[in-house]
Amino acid sequence: MRPSDYVVRHAVRWVVASALAIACTVAAAQPRYGLPPEISAVFNRWVLATCIGDEERALIDDLRRYRVPLAVAFQRAIVDGPSPRELREARAAASERYDARAKFPLGEFRVEGVSQEELERFRRVSRQQYVDDQVRRFATGYRSNAVAGLGIVAGPASRERLARIANNQNDPLAPAAREALKAAERQ
User: Fold this and answer.
1) pTM for the predicted model, two decimal places
2) Torsion angle of C-alpha atoms 47, 173, 125, 120, degrees rounded to 10
3) Cα separation of 157 and 163, whole Å?
4) Buried b / exposed e across 160-185, counting CB within 10 Å, b at 16+?
5) Could you give the count of Cα atoms lying within 13 Å of 163 in the half-sphere of its Cβ?
6) Residue ranges of the domains in the chain?
7) Which string of DSSP letters, residue by residue, matches 107-149?
8) For residue range 101-147, what is the model confidence (pLDDT) as tens digits?
């Protein structure tokens, strides 16, 4: 092999590796489900909301404005749940809440309306149990929000999907799907 062949091969490998790295970086930076940034922001505000309060009307109007791409995204989010990054963030936040909870001087206060047995159960919850429960609740809430969003942007295929979920008594999303179907019928 001539030295010039080695240099060319090395340069080609470097260019291919660099192009692949750039492509992966760009792909990782894409909003979830390929949504444009403006629609992705609406999607995220909806699925990550714990309370929308005064913003409800404006947010629902935004959902309806982007009905078609959001219907697809909500259907996928129902199956996928939160992204790995969102789950990591929820896990870290739950761990911080556990630390704050563990520091609370429960024995220094008289707690009314809660039995001694319930207080003992509260004290016995391990960090892992607490964090796992909070992450599970977050994921279920995220998927429930996707179900509710699908009810707002619903077309015929979405209504069928919601009906299948609503009729499955073992699905934790069934109550949310029943409410989403009611919302879809009011439209």
Assistant:
1) 0.77
2) 120
3) 10
4) ebbeebbeeeeeebbebbbbbbebbe
5) 9
6) 1-30, 36-186
7) GGSPPPSS-HHHHHHHHH--HHHHHHHHHHHHHHHHHHHHHHH
8) 888 877 777 778 888 888 888 888 999 999 999 999 999 999 999 99
